Amino acid sequence: MYLWVVTAAGLLPPLIMGIFAVLQKIKRNKDIDMKDEDFIVEISDSVISIGVMMDLASAGIMVGFTIFTENLPPLIFYAVFGLLFWIGSFLIYRTLTFKVIVKDKKIAVYSSFGKTYYLSFSDLDSAARQYKPGKTGYEQIRVKTASGKSFTVKSREICYKYFKERIKSEIPTEKLVGFGVE
Rounded to two decimals, what is the model's pTM? Predict the structure, then answer.
């Protein structure tokens, strides 16, 4: 009986976070009216399916071995599969909540674990492009504002190239770092 309480305590918080994230995304999608020059930088929805598969597999294995074996598995078994469950839940939550919306000269940053904040391109203090020349596909832009806020957009996110070009055209060259080499 004690093990069921521990398992439920480990699985319930990510499930509740996921439900709230889905509700928040549904509300946010109704509020957006996009034009051709505007875009949304977001994580691909395929990451959600990876997170769901991780959650289902790890929860299924934990519950299956708990119910259908005579002896309970060791604690390390629950630690490993519980960690996999939390990682899958994090992938789902991050995909549903992180978004950077560029609309005209305004930017809205929907952070996964912070408040949503709105700014314009004139508020941006600097942008640093980080990349590894030997690794194709690894690139990110770290944007800092005058008020001290910052956010990162990675190359694997949808509309990254649009965002990169918009940053290059909107921010003065002296405030850009790493944009000279392609």
Answer: 0.69
